[in-house]
Write a structure and sequence with these properties.
The protein is built from 23 helices and no strands. By secondary structure, it is mostly helical. The chain has a domain of 80 residues: Tetratricopeptide repeat domain (Serine Threonine Protein Phosphatase 5, Tetratricopeptide repeat).
């Protein structure tokens, strides 16, 4: 019996089901490409304020340098009010990229206060409205941000950054990938060499199952920026969704050569290692990813999965619990925590709250029913196991784990011939299914 599935992370997006893999989505907010040009300031070009705000929004590669420059500029007490707001907004983005959610929220909030007070609702300025939308998006105020992006675009239809950020928000918060593609198209009409837009559109196509256009966009992004870790991670995800794990591994390795502390490249490479049964390497990468961002629920879940596969049940349980402390609605973590506790002998028949939580969160998922069936078999309750396996097989009558488990449940209820038929059908589909049960003393 496998402990659920291994979840995939992405800074761009993630949604692939491969062999032994499934999906949980996480995202870090980062606005589009650059801060539109600020009014000229009477400062030398290498002044900390210019290091802070000029050019692109901060990325993981330059977030620390940009954050420090913003702090230095703010401490100089030489900035005007609009410069303070932009410096705080930029530092908020940098801190987001560094995983500092609390301090980034403080910066976004202060920037938002400024723009709320500075924007004249009767005659709004497109640039200020756009920047306010970025602050709102950073604070998770998606509805307000979308309204402001719409307004900024209406006031300035040539603002490529507003299209790009609106598309990103539509994709990440609304999962509206078709509308997002439209916005990325508009961005690229205005700025054909916009690498971030190419990456974002490539991911949106991938989410829609349009892998040809996805690869084309990501290939183009890598032509323009050959060492771009985000593009490499995005293309790696496409290869993973297509089941081309070796190509995915090559891209994740290349991304980590370019950006050794890229948490999503580490986490997604761990998924490839897990799919190949290389659980020690998967744990190594997840350890590194969690050193960078210890608030990543999916990484804890994935490390729990790998520990379970190595029979390290105490470590698996600790990781699942850590994941659920960060995200109590992670159904797979509830499911695998229940399974790990039962296999480790730490759960009784009346102590299956996590299995119940998983069913409540994922009522239509046959894997939940399948795992619950195994749990009841392990606890010596074949009648309850039979009910769960029947529910799984109603969704897919050819699931070998459910068929074999149902066979065992029927045998446990004295229906030997019917049970043997199910077990024979299961082994005809997947001969190794027997080992999934005998490994845990269920036969």
């Amino acid at each position: 019996m496998k402990s659920g599935k291994f979840a995939i992370l992405s800074a761009v997006a993630c949604a692939f089901v491969g062999v032994g893999l499934s999906v949980l989505i996480t995202r870090s907010f980062a606005p589009a490409v650059r801060v539109p040009d600020a009014p000229a300031a009477a400062m030398p070009f290498d002044d900390p304020y210019h290091v802070c705000v000029d050019g692109a929004w901060p990325t993981q590669a330059d977030a620390r340098r940009r954050s420090d420059a913003c702090s230095q500029a703010l401490q100089s007490r030489r900035l005007q009010l609009d410069e303070i707001a932009l410096a705080r907004l930029t530092r908020g983005v940098a801190r987001t990229m560094l995983g500092n959610g609390v301090t980034s929220a403080e910066d976004y909030l202060e920037a938002l206060k400024h723009y709320d007070g500075a924007i004249d609702p009767r005659n709004p300025d497109a640039l200020s409205v756009y920047r306010r939308a970025v602050a709102e998006q950073g604070l998770g105020q998606s509805d307000r941000a979308l309204v402001d992006y719409d307004t900024a675009i209406r006031l300035d239809p040539r603002n490529a950054f507003a299209y790009l950020d609106r598309g990103t928000l539509l994709a990440t918060r609304g999962r509206n990938y078709l509308r997002a593609v439209d916005d990325f198209d508009r961005t690229l009409q205005i700025d054909p060499a916009n690498v971030t837009a190419l990456i974002a559109r490539g991911d949106a196509w991938s989410q829609l199952g349009e892998f040809g256009p996805a690869v084309a966009d990501l290939d183009r992004a890598l032509e323009l920026s050959p060492a771009n870790a985000q593009a490499l991670v995005g293309r790696g995800l496409v290869w993973s969704r297509l089941g081309k794990l070796n190509l995915a591994l090559q891209d994740y390795n290349a991304a980590l050569t370019s950006a050794p502390r890229h948490p999503f490249a580490l986490s997604n490479r761990a998924a490839i290692y897990a799919a190949k049964g290389m659980y020690g390497l998967a744990i190594r990468d997840l350890d590194a990813a969690l050193e960078i961002d210890d608030r990543n629920a999916v990484a804890y879940y994935n490390r729990g999965y790998a520990q379970f596969a190595l029979d390290n049940y105490a470590a698996a349980i600790a990781n699942y619990e850590a994941a659920l402390q960060l995200d109590g609605n992670m159904g797979l973590a509830h499911l695998n925590l229940c399974l790990a506790r039962v296999v480790a002998g730490l759960a009784a028949k009346n102590d299956l709250a996590d299995c119940d939580a998983a069913l409540k969160l994922m009522p239509l998922n046959p894997e939940v029913r399948e795992t619950r069936g195994f749990v009841f078999l392990k606890l010596g309750e074949p009648a309850k196991a039979l009910k769960e396996y029947n529910a799984a097989l109603e969704v897919d009558p050819n699931r070998p784990l459910a068929l074999y488990g149902r066979g065992l449940a029927k045998c446990g209820l004295g229906e030997g011939q019917a049970g043997d038929r199910d077990k024979t059908a299961a082994t005809a589909i997947a001969p190794e299914v027997v080992r999934q049960f005998t490994r845990f003393g269920v036969s």
